[in-house]
Specification:
266 residues, 12 helices, 9 strands, alpha/beta
């Protein structure tokens, strides 16, 4: 059982959803990103996603785009991502890299899998990689015991969901809406139906991402999903802070609120 699978199993045993938190490597600085991820975990996140900054973030909204732009402008590289992963993993927290496929392909699929595993990473979330094009990654992940997390969407028909979930491990990422990332006032009504349809195709946990901003919404998603994924709301706390210290405090406050939310499901 992978560390990510174990985290979801532990959450289920406690009759709650798992909290998955996202932050991009390199923002607000290389060390600041590590510190923020640590605070997030200490405040209740069960799994951490570390984003690999990329110049063409197709599904990211303005908040994450801004943080990624600042990280890239500061010179963040894949080596910084792996250093962040290593620090989080060394603290005993399951950590995945969220990345578009081009940087992995450029780095070398086998080399990336090898170096990610060596850093203690648990796997990849690949939002723009389709199962039909994932052969090299599936082989490399199997060789290095890494989880493969793919996305299903509200528009995915049953046959597509069956194909996507057949190559997943760890959990299935259910994108709650058709659009870019970003915290929202209300959640898309299609999310619960997508989770239900996905569960018909797999026994893997299903975690919902895109849009959750506070504890109330986390509780709402936790009422029908196995995991709650939060990214933009955390990044916004860092962007809106006066300095890194204040940003860390804000991240910890939000993580604690969300952790209480996933435990408050009916």
């Amino acid at each position: 059982m992978s560390p990510v699978s174990a985290a979801f199993e532990k959450a289920a045993a406690e009759n709650r959803a798992a909290l998955v938190g996202y932050l991009p490597a390199g923002y607000p600085s290389a060390d600041g990103a590590i510190a923020a991820a640590m605070v997030m975990a200490e405040s209740g996140a069960d799994v951490i996603e570390i984003g690999l900054p990329y110049s063409d973030p197709l599904i990211d909204g303005l908040v994450i785009q801004e943080a990624v732009h600042r990280a890239l402008s500061a010179g963040t590289r894949v080596s910084d991502v792996l250093r962040t992963v290593e620090a989080v993993a060394d603290a005993g927290v399951p950590v995945l890299v969220m990345t578009y496929w081009n940087p992995v392909d450029h780095y070398g699929v086998d080399a990336f899998a090898r170096d990610l595993a060596a850093a203690g990473g648990s796997g990849l979330i690949t939002p723009d990689l389709t199962p039909e094009e994932a052969g090299p990654w599936l082989a490399a992940a199997a060789e290095h015991d890494l989880d493969k997390v793919f996305l299903v969407a509200p528009s995915s028909p049953r046959q597509r969901i069956e194909l996507i979930t057949s190559v997943c491990s760890g959990f299935v990422y259910a994108a709650s809406l058709m659009g870019v990332t970003g915290a929202r006032e209300s959640l898309d009504s299609h999310a619960a139906g997508l989770v239900s349809r996905t569960r018909e195709a797999t026994k893997l946990p299903v975690a919902v991402g895109l849009g959750v901003r506070d504890g109330r919404q986390a509780a709402e998603v936790a009422s029908f999903a196995d995991g709650v994924i939060v990214g933009s709301a955390f990044v916004q706390r860092l962007l809106g802070a006066d300095d890194e210290k204040a940003g860390l405090a804000a991240v910890g406050e939000l993580a604690a609120e969300l952790a209480a939310g996933v435990r408050a499901r009916p």
